[in-house]
């Protein structure tokens, strides 16, 4: 009855009511035990272009583009209309024994942008389910081929691949797994390809050799006959926008090919324009994976959709196997959702018409302006690629040690920036920026100016509290 009363109350609920309802009924993602089910977060009322407006009416630059996904910006009437039109035509069909036209057309369009022989698409509801699908397909593929022991998965420190059980088992960010279980018997972890954290005095070239040697040695030690897949983001996004050294991914791809290990490129963040291309694997890094996972920008966040692009070679090997009746027992109620696929088609039209070109043109300016923040003594490094970047704060640049620093320094910066008109994504001692791809040079100037002031105010706070002296 209490819930029913709350529901009736929402007929005239304002921001204060929403906050109270959230504290009483809403479980937020990634909560702490001490506040789970009893917290409210910043309430956002509306969005327009690169901006969002909070419950107090403050206009903010959407620095993270939602969650790496609002690529063509908020309030695009074209996408809203497509959602309406498709829902009125066909709102849903079961994918178990029927299909819809938007999903078939979208699969064709996506395959046309994919590198190598990646030509078939399985649609999911998001990034986690896309990675989960790729891994389950790897298991199925090896079972059908008579290699049931070839199931281990190589992942890396700093990685983030999702929140479902198997995808989350691959994660390598600090604190992600402190209190959570995972399929640890299936995952082998490698070092993060983070040049900023390479051993002191080591060149980037030598660091690359170390990473490649570690990969090769791990395959030899564990056994190629036991390793089914390597899963890697072209740029480690939630791990702090870690851009790998030049040539590293190509060398890892060759080792995978030589040892019959499926290379899964996790492009949940980097695809659909974040790096200026529909897919970064081929166009930016010169690799042709066996599978690519995607989500987020495929609909610019307007509808939950993700997927896996699969190599024609893998499917042909299955079709030629001695087990034609083997079933890939995997699917989702909302696989190939007609509304989501229709939205993705229109979103892809918009990206192809002008947004991809604009993103490529404005990205160098975005990176250069953010790089100026390295003038601030709290900033250890600004790094990035395309329209994604990370400002990493350190206690001192010599040791690059963030641990002496207030671990909530990112949240401190975000709080100051919020007051000044910018939403930041804080990650412990880092601030991640990935604005909508339609951002202009003038808006980049505004964003960087606010971020500079937010970091400066945070430095003043830390000095005043005796946490850091600079």
**Count of DSSP helices?**
14
Cα-atom Rg, whole angstroms? 23 Å
Instruction: Give helix and strand order, one letter per element, not per position.
Output: HHEEEHHHEHEHEHEHEHEEHHEEHEEEH
Shape: globular
List keywords for this structure.
470 residues; alpha/beta; seven-stranded mixed β-sheet; four-stranded mixed β-sheet; 14 helices; 15 strands; 39% helix; globular; Aminotrans_3; aminotransferase; PyrdxlP-dep_Trfase_small
Describe the 3D structure:
One of its GO terms (molecular function) is transaminase activity. It comes from Mesorhizobium robiniae. Belongs to the class-III pyridoxal-phosphate-dependent aminotransferase family. With 470 residues, this protein is an alpha/beta fold. The chain is built from 14 helices and 15 strands. It has helices at residues 2-9, 15-25, 65-68, 77-89, 101-113, 127-144, 165-169, 204-222, 248-258, 280-283, 312-319, 338-371, 409-420, 441-465; strands spanning 44-48, 51-54, 59-62, 118-124, 152-156, 187-190, 227-232, 262-266, 291-294, 306-311, 379-385, 388-393, 422-423, 425-427, 430-433. The strands form three sheets. A seven-stranded mixed beta sheet has the order 4-10-9-8-7-5-6, with helices on both faces. Helix 4 packs antiparallel against helix 12. The radius of gyration is 23 Å and the shape is globular. It starts with a helix and ends in a 5-residue tail after the last helix. The model has no long low-confidence stretch (mean pLDDT 94).
């Amino acid at each position: 009855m209490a819930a029913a009363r709350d529901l009736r109350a929402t007929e005239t609920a304002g921001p204060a009511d929403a906050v109270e309802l959230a504290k009483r009924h809403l479980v937020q993602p990634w909560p702490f035990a001490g506040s789970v089910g009893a917290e409210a977060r910043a309430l956002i009322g509306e969005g327009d272009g690169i901006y969002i407006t909070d419950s107090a009416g403050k206009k903010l630059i959407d620095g993270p583009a939602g969650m790496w996904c609002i690529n063509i910006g908020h309030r695009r009437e074209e996408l809203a209309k497509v959602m309406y039109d498709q829902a009125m035509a066909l709102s849903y069909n079961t994918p178990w024994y029927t299909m819809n036209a938007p999903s078939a057309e979208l699969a064709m369009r996506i395959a046309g942008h994919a590198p190598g022989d990646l030509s078939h698409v399985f649609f999911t509801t998001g990034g986690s389910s896309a990675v989960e699908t790729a891994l389950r397909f790897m298991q199925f593929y090896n079972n059908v081929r008579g290699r049931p022991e070839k199931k281990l998965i190589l992942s890396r420190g700093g990685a983030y691949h999702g929140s479902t059980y198997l995808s989350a088992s691959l994660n390598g960010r600090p604190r992600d797994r402190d209190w959570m279980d995972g399929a640890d018997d299936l995952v082998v972890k490698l070092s993060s390809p983070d040049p900023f954290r390479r051993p002191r005095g080591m060149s980037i070239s030598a660091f690359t050799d170390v990473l490649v040697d570690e990969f090769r040695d791990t395959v030899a030690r564990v056994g190629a006959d036991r390793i089914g897949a390597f899963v890697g983001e072209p740029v480690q996004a939630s791990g702090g926008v870690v851009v790998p050294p030049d040539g590293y991914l190509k060398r890892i791809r060759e080792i995978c090919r030589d040892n019959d290990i499926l290379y899964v490129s996790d492009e949940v963040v980097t695809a659909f324009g974040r790096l200026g291309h529909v897919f970064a694997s081929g166009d930016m890094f010169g690799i042709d994976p066996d599978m690519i996972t995607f989500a987020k920008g495929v609909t610019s966040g307007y509808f939950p959709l993700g997927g896996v692009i699969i190599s024609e070679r893998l499917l042909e090997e299955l079709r030629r196997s001695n087990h034609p009746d083997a079933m890939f027992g995997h699917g989702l109620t909302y696989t190939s959702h007609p509304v989501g696929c229709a939205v993705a088609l229109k979103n892809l039209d918009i990206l192809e018409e002008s947004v991809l070109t604009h993103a490529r043109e404005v990205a160098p300016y975005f990176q250069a302006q953010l790089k100026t923040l390295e003038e601030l003594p709290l900033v250890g490094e600004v790094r990035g690629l395309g329209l994604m970047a990370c400002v990493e704060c350190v206690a001192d640049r010599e040791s690059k040690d963030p641990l002496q620093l207030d671990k909530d320094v990112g949240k401190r910066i975000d709080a100051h920036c919020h007051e000044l008109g910018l939403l930041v994504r804080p990650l412990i001692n880092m601030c991640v920026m990935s604005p909508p791809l339609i951002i202009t040079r003038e808006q980049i100037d505004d964003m960087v100016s606010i971020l500079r002031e937010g970091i400066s105010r945070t430095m003043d706070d830390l000095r005043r509290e005796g946490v850091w002296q600079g």
